[in-house]
Amino acid sequence: MELSSSLKLSSPLSPSIINLQGTSSSNIVNFSNYTSLPKPFLQHDDRSRRLRHQQASHSHSVNLRSYRKRVTAKSESQGWDFGRFVKTLYFFNGPPSPLKFVSSVFEKLTNGSTEEPVNEMETSGIILVAGATGGVGRRVVDILRKRGLPVKALVRNEEKARKMLGPDIDLIFADITKENTLVPEKFKGVRKVINAVSVIVGPKEGDTPERQKYNQGVRFFEPEIKGDSPELVEYIGMKNLINAVKDGVGLENGKLLFGVGDNTFKDLPWGALDDVVMGGVSESNFLVDLTGGENGGPTGIFKGIVSTTNNGGFTSVRTKNFPEAENLSAYDGLELRLKGDGLRYKLIVRTSQDWDTVGYTASFDTSPGQWQSVRLPFSSLRPVFRARTKSDAPPFNPASIISLQLMFSKFEYDGKLNPTFKEGPFELPLSSIRAYIQDPVTPRFVHVGSAGVTRPERPGLDLSKQPPAVRLNKELDFILTYKLKGEDLIRSSGIPFAIVRPCALTEEPAGAELIFDQGDNITGKVSRDEVARICIAALESPLALNKTFEVKSTVPFSEPFTVDPENPPPEKDYNEYFKNLKDGITGKEALEQSTVAV
């Protein structure tokens, strides 16, 4: 039976435990208000051990009635439960051959050889430059390539891109204004983005093929929008680009796979996989306790009784294979939020649809009686097959995660034993499993915006003293208004970001002294070369994380800035500028009393 994707809970709830084993799809439980749940959804009959499912309504929301299910395995029991063995096979859709499956499980109990070295995980880290043929974008590409960093250029015109960037540049042909061109396969391996896409502004009277008038700056000509509108490029295009790269660059707070999220509880189809498969009597289960977690919230509970009777000694719960592989390549590991009991457990991650295959495994210790976060880096996962480390196994692929498994076992790896193992009952509350980005987090999406985006409708501002784009915002189809709306999409996306707002861009060389500011107040000029370098530095700096800032040089418009090629200025340490920036300052603070109308 398939469950609805949203289970809403709405009134105070007496302690209740829900056994969701056997469901065939993930569930999201909204729990902003806990409620008593009058209608039965899942009930357990201890005598027959069968779940009876009753759908409460035809909507996407259902009510859950509280109930408890007791784990009934007893350590002194000698009888093997053939029915539970068959049920286990059935729940996981059965292995290709039951005899082969039983044989493989027995082999897991044999002592292995000495521990073998583990292949290190391979990682990729392509930097995508969007708007790569623009004034800032092409400079970014050039610097990245000179530094030997892997880069892809997102462009619309192949001929123009090859001529400008070189014949060997790795290109992605797409148009951010056309969602259907942003095929996910094109962005495989992309981990960071520098977005220099901008609506095209040019002189009404026309320009040279090299855009000489444009490169002088908009203050030197009467501007108009050329090509796609600001709404299409700066807002809709930004939305399309974020959606295309989001899985690859990741979320700052991680990706929830199971458990408590923002006012939700995401469940997975867990099923027991105990030593009954090789003749043992241990038994476990996975429950959802709606009030047993931290601060009275919901939590999963892996619990049971483990016994070494009949040569047993392990219990586990495993998810069914996910309908689609989870792509966690943007992350560095899995974080479990749990309440420890002093025992050592295992997390097993599988990347194959096959039943009897390598599981990438990490053991973790817990502290008794304490809620704690346990981080398991992907680089720590060892490939294990039938209790033996497989040094010749393929490297772990975080882009293709098929199932998860929690285990409490007497056995470790390669003949070693779990030093904390003891027979009898155990209970491990688990409130969440999420993928995480290792600290310190740095921006994954750096956007080149524009100074002035909050000024067109700012109360009390003297527009005559503002740059042309501010004065002509309406005439230029609300260019700055849509640039601001595009920025807001980045800030609300959850992606680690930095937003660079240059003042008027020039063709002058980098090297002038700079002023970084926040609040969208400064005017001036800054070199495109300098902005390119700032963007690349921001990608590597935790100090730039989630910062929005403006930048200009100290050189006034009336003075050209030049550099002696024989004596160039020293490279800047941009962290000296980033370190003074603050979170949450965008310039929109001045608009709180005014509404920007489009």
From TrEMBL:
<dbReference type="InterPro" id="IPR013857">
    <property type="entry name" value="NADH-UbQ_OxRdtase-assoc_prot30"/>
</dbReference>
<feature type="domain" description="NAD(P)-binding">
    <location>
        <begin position="443"/>
        <end position="542"/>
    </location>
</feature>
<dbReference type="InterPro" id="IPR016040">
    <property type="entry name" value="NAD(P)-bd_dom"/>
</dbReference>
<protein>
    <recommendedName>
        <fullName>NADH:ubiquinone oxidoreductase intermediate-associated protein 30 domain-containing protein</fullName>
    </recommendedName>
</protein>
<dbReference type="InterPro" id="IPR008979">
    <property type="entry name" value="Galactose-bd-like_sf"/>
</dbReference>
<dbReference type="InterPro" id="IPR036291">
    <property type="entry name" value="NAD(P)-bd_dom_sf"/>
</dbReference>
<feature type="region of interest" description="Disordered">
    <location>
        <begin position="46"/>
        <end position="65"/>
    </location>
</feature>
<dbReference type="Pfam" id="PF08547">
    <property type="entry name" value="CIA30"/>
</dbReference>
<feature type="domain" description="NADH:ubiquinone oxidoreductase intermediate-associated protein 30">
    <location>
        <begin position="270"/>
        <end position="429"/>
    </location>
</feature>
<dbReference type="Pfam" id="PF13460">
    <property type="entry name" value="NAD_binding_10"/>
</dbReference>
<feature type="domain" description="NAD(P)-binding">
    <location>
        <begin position="131"/>
        <end position="246"/>
    </location>
</feature>
